[in-house]
Amino acid sequence: MALRPRTDPTVQAWLGTELATVDQAGFVLPDVVRATDGRWVVDGWGATSLLPGSSSETLETSWLAVLAAGRAFHRATRDLARPTWLADRSDWWAQADRAAWEEGSMEVIPPLQPLVTRLRHVVAPLGCDQLVHGDLTGNVLVGVGHAPGIIDVSPYWRPTAYADGVVVADAICWHDAQRDLVDDAGTSLAAVARGLLFRVLATNAMQRDRPDPSALRRDTERYAKAARSLGF
C-alpha cells in the first residue's frame, strides 16, 4: 500500500469513485483504499494499492511507452465530466496552468521573463478540453508482463495534446531526450511549447513564494537549453 500525505479528501473521493469507473484498456490504475471506517483520508493521509513497474524517471522506460499509456488513459477519460473542484485549486501548478493558458495573470520574475515571452509567441490552440493527467512524466510504471500503471493522477481540464507536450518538454528538459522525440511522438511543437511554458511558470510561482537562487539558476539553464534545442 502507498500512503500519501496532504491528500485532499474531495480529490481522493473522486479518484476512488468517478475515475475508478473508466475502462482501463491499455493501462491500469491503483485502487484507492478507504480507511476501515470508510473515510478516504485520515489525518491528511490517503492510500492506494501498489502497482509493479519502473518509472520513466529511472530511464528504464521509453518516452513513447509513457505517451502511449497516457493516450490510453485519455481515451478512457474523454467522457468524464469536469470536476467542479478544479476551479478551487490554488497550488503552484494550478496557478501556472491557468497562466499558461492565459486564464489568470502571473507576475513573472526577471530571470524568466525572456523565456516566457518567447514561448508565448509559439503556443497555439490544441483542441477540445477534457479530463487529462497533467503530470505523466514520472507517473507511468512499465514492467514486463504488466499493463502500464498510471499513478498520482494530476487532473486538469485541457486538450490531450497538452498532456503529451508536458511529457516531451520534461523529457528534453530534465532527462536529456533529443529533439527527435517531438517527431517520433507525433506531438506538435505548439503542444511542447505550452508544456514547457507550464513548467517555467510553475518554477516562477515557487520562486516567487520561496526564493532559491541556486535552484532558479539551474532550472533557468535547463529551460533555456530545451527551448534552444526545440527552436523556440
Which helices and strands, and how do they pair?
Blueprint: E1 2-4, H1 9-16, E2 32-33, E3 41-42, E4 45-48, E5 54-55, H2 63-77, H3 92-100, H4 113-120, E6 130-133, E7 140-142, E8 149-150, E9 155-158, H5 160-174, H6 180-185, H7 189-209, H8 213-230
Antiparallel strand pairs: 1-4, 2-4, 3-4, 5-7, 6-9, 7-8
Helix pairs in contact: 2-5, 3-7, 4-7, 5-7, 5-8, 7-8
What does this structure look like?
With 232 residues, the protein is of the alpha+beta class. The chain has one domain: Aminoglycoside 3'-phosphotransferase, Chain: A, domain 2 (Alpha-Beta Complex). The chain is built from eight helices and nine strands. The protein has helices spanning 9-16, 63-77, 92-100, 113-120, 160-174, 180-185, 189-209, 213-230, and strands at 2-4, 32-33, 41-42, 45-48, 54-55, 130-133, 140-142, 149-150, 155-158. Strands 1, 2, 3 and 4 form a four-stranded antiparallel sheet that branches. The chain has a three-stranded antiparallel sheet with strand order 5-7-8, covered by helices on one side. Strand 3 and strand 4 (45-48) form a beta hairpin. Helix 2 packs antiparallel against helix 5 (160-174). The longest helix has 21 residues, at 189-209. The chain is globular and about 50 Å long.
Summed up:
Helix 2 runs antiparallel to helix 5, helix 4 (113-120) packs antiparallel against helix 7 (189-209) and helix 7 (189-209) packs antiparallel against helix 8 (213-230). This protein is 43% helix and 11% strand. The chain starts with a strand and ends with a helix.
